[in-house]
Fold these 4 entries.
Entry 1:
Amino acid sequence: MIRSVHRRLAAGTAIAIAGLLAAAVPTAAATSSTTTSSSSSGSAAPARSLAALAAPDIPVANVKAHLNDLQSIATANGGNRAHGRTGYKASIDFVKAKLDAAGFTTTLQQFTSSGSTGYNLIADWPGGDANKVLMAGSHLDSVSSGPGINDNGSGSAAILETALAVSRAQFSPDKHLRFAWWGAEELGLVGSRYYVNSLSATDRSKISGYLNFDMIGSPNPGYFVYDDDPTIEQTFKTYFTGIGVPTEIETEGDGRSDHASFKNVGIPVGGLFTGASRTKSSAQATKWGGTSGQAFDRCYHSSCDTTSNISETALDRNSDAIAYAIWTLSAGTTVPPTGDVYENTTDVTIPDYGTAVTSSVAVSGRTGNAPAALQVGVDIKHTWRGDLVIDLVAPDGTAYRLKNSSGSDSADDVVATYTVNASSETANGTWQLKVQDVARYDTGYINSWKLTF
């Protein structure tokens, strides 16, 4: 985050999203080992938004692994990852390689600042409405005085892992998803301004929202939400309300990070922040924990901004909030499901290169057949998802293939929602998720799965 303070900019235009934003809570780790169902009729738990049901938990260990890699890059390149230095180019190459392997279309955009070549990295996920683009971005450069692990390795690593989660889930949102890593932010938002200025008026109008993440792992953290576009702001507030964490409006860094480049041209913006050099008050320490009278980040723009300068709790919460927002805001609507949800949260071990295993849900009390767009939500933890063949088995034994095995599908886990035309099947009865590992050396388990009628 750059040092200079800018006046507050005019509020951006609101994103037009069909329907009211659901009072949704993020998907939590299941604690019950029984099959459950919920109904929108009011007799069971309130329905959550479709996007919230699908949003994955972002593994904080993966985000920290990216931070360790950025630290190693800085250490090997003079202690920083600043614009024009070898550490920055190595950082952008590191992120690009991850995204290329995950199936993104990446573009390396060059610009010149202070006599040196700078780079922006743009990563597009295939599919979605090209006239409605949801962007998420973070600056990847550090100041020259340190490795910049909180500022802003934290935001960069979190959106990298969120992008990889999009790939693992083979997410197919209504909107087109675009992720960006900006160069030379510390010199005055140079990279993001260059990108926005390079867009035609038509291309700018296609960006329905830009989400910015700059410093989301401060060691004495606060939980701040940008006070800009009301829909984006409320989406983040809804997430944090769902996990019982109060938020405040972000004021310390307003206009000092890359969202300003988008906001200046009328693109709706929002984002998260955990604080920089400003001091945490006693009221904030009571609300969030931590130490009052100390800066949110005592190593801001200093050599001590290393991997030791990160709150894992803040990093974890904000990474999950990013995924929640991406899944929610990229949907064409946030109207909650109108049917019932039947879920099994009992873990089932998948043997390595072994026989198929099943997990069951019992559906009862329904009339007629299953819907033509039966939603099958799958959460499988596995060290090589390409080994897995997944089927939905109807009560009469008919199998519907959800996923084939593939040697090129090298990511971890399967977190996805599949749509099955089950209109020829009687709704009532025992439905099964059938999973088989058809290759050697990798293991995993069915974490949970659900049917939405």
Entry 2:
Amino acid sequence: MSELMPAPEAILRRLEMTVLRRLDGLLHGDYRTLFRGIGVDLADLREYQYQDDVRHIDWNVTARLQTPYVKEYYEERELTAWFLLDLSPSENFGSQSVTKRTQAMDLTTILASLLSRHGNRVGALFYGTNVDTVVPAGSGRRQVLQLLHRMLKRPRGAKAPSSTRLLDLLQTAAHVMHRRSLVFVLSDFITQPGWEKAMAMLAQRHELVVIRLYDPLEMALPDLGLLTIQDAETAEQLLVDTHDKAFRSRFAAAVTEREEALHDAFSYAGVDALELSTEDDIVDALYRFSELRKNSSRLATGGTSQFGRRQ
């Protein structure tokens, strides 16, 4: 009688068969469209060219020569990637069959697998009600399975005594990640304000990829009559009449204000966000992401971009 397959192994195999195989076909094996090598040693200076990353401009040399110059780095053959996972109670929400937490776990597993198969190291920090888990960086399939196991065994449904502080996750990560790394921040950004400066500081030192998770019901409230809605962070409940047009209008205005504030915060931090819905196909989202990564340097010159934003 064969031994039952452990849950992490079963999930990883499912993702390898369904998602990674499709993604390989779309990327034609060129995973570097998703992950650029990150160098730490300065190799040379050269004159700025169209589509160069403006973050690599050497402003001292540029001012002295009156011509833009960029820094070139020796590219590391291997890189270290970190996943900063917001697994706070609001991530458990999903209006259909998939929750934000599930999307975050699947996407993390997929990205970690892509990175590990090329010899790179992956690690993670988890935030629940605080930063409660650090998975040290390691390589190989066993590391991906360990990461997935640690995500799966986390309790679901616990309510936080107060709202999420994404700032704590970003600040802890800055102390844990000693070498320049590729950093993925996965969160729904339902959090206390004040995280923008910490994210900007991370982006100055690391290659930062922000993935904002959301559910469509958080963006538009349908006419469903009387509903009891609950704050996923604090468990506070409120009875509302969604048939009331004035209420739905106020809800829409609040969503617009929140979205504008969030994208202003991304702009302040100097990062772009891939927005991932609970209804999105992950392969399609990653393909869209890879296409946008090709133009990220050009977009960086134009201020706030539409990188990964819903149309």
Entry 3:
Amino acid sequence: MSKVTKISQQNFADEVKSHPGKVLVDFYADWCGPCKMVAPVLEQLAAQDDSIKIVKVDADDAPELMQEYGIRGIPTLLLFNNGEKVATKVGAVPLAQLKTFVDQA
């Protein structure tokens, strides 16, 4: 079973902004090749690190969020800590880079 939850623009505030602690948000699309590459890496991270909540948002269904966070390319990963955006990473990344990205914030 997947530990990465798909959320929508409608429940973004509840799932991300009001969550205590770290939340990694993956903005993706089903037609995006690099997004498909990053999905299993996110699953690996979710399985290894219980201290972070990982969610996915379909970029095609979330134009307001895309605009709000200035997202121009996907996959884009946004890291939130206690509801505040603390870091952004664009593009597919290997697990080691993803861990470093999450740990540094």
Entry 4:
Amino acid sequence: MKKTIKTLGIAILGGVITLAGYKMIIENPQEIIQVSEIQSPLKTIPANYPSTVINSELSPTDFTEAADKTVHAVVHVKNTAVRTQQNPYAQLFGRSGTRKYEQVGTGSGVIISPDGYIVTNNHVIDRASEIEITLNNRKKLKAVLVGTDKSNDIALLKVDSDEDLPYLPFGNSDNAKIGEWVLAVGNPYNLTSTVTAGIVSAKGRDLDGNRNIEAFIQTDAAVNPGNSGGALVNTRGELIGINTAISSKTGSFIGYSFAVPSNIAKKVVDDLLEFGSVQEAIIGISVDNSIKDIEGVKIGEIESNSEAIKAGLLEGDIITKVNNIKITKFSDLKGQLTAKRPGEYVNLTITRNGEDLMKTVKLAKKNTFTSYSFGVQLKDLSKKERKKHAITGGAKITGANNKGFLYYKIGAGYILTKINGKEITNASEAVTVLDAYTGNQQMILELMSPEGKKEYFRF
């Protein structure tokens, strides 16, 4: 009898476990991932900033007007890309070793003009073969890519509509104050027209591991994957940033998000519309980082024959303001310059031997760029160099630490003229194409040696 009861108990227990397993695994699967439908994630960085304390005794702010202005100008962005997958085993059976499939990413965008220009993040539409946007009224429109700026993670789209679209005017991000209330509006997890509130918790933030040091606006408004490219607005409904990154160890919001300041985004948009590429402005100096405990940016070397020399800047000067905007670290200076164009004049406040001086400097155009994928530095050719080699474009190599380049003895003095048969116009374009290389595709470089001989190299 005892044996029978024991056997019955084991059977019942086994049944319970089996039923529970069925419920968990079969009826309610939790780990199924559709690889064909993904959300364009926000950039993530380690969460290592101190928490923000908000005074709960302050009277609440009314966000309804700003939210109403914003939600109609923020769109859902759908990116369809065609991917190629390698299958080495298929070739063993005489079949093709590759297959193509569609992958979908989603994000947000902001309408910035009534005729249909939309700003979003570059990573939202990266390598898209088709882009579709959905307005707040659920109307769907096809979008075309006008241009991108990978370094600032900004892209410009255009849609055609038979009526004027609701849009957001750019605000002045320099006027944003720490502690000021802001709204983040976007489409996290495909939840359209989502509005979250927070405060500006820092400005001029440069993110760890970011090669292109940027001056992000940091906020504690909740931002999640799908918010990429959405709007950060103040309580007046002015666009002061494009939501781009989050501070997270999990991939979801745990405290902080970061936005490209509107002044930078607007300048990028203007450059893409006028020139087709971003015009980077420089002072013509290097930075001396030997002293860590100073407020400002200490000037190291100054380029010969530069506008900085003409303006009277000296090595050792400390830049403390740009056009009366306080500069405490390099990312502040970088942010101000990124929002300016070559040829513009800026007033620099500098400290020299304990005395504050004002210097007016004409900004020059950046003409040297670095490809981190290939480990090569490239510079625009001068008119004299183009005439000498009888070419209309190209980019001159000024330095290289790529193993392939070193093996073939490709170095300073070589001129990159074509990539995969396409002519290269300048150094900026060359770096953009080189950094798009993933290693899964073939890349053939046409180079001109210092002696003027054409050479070809396959990577």
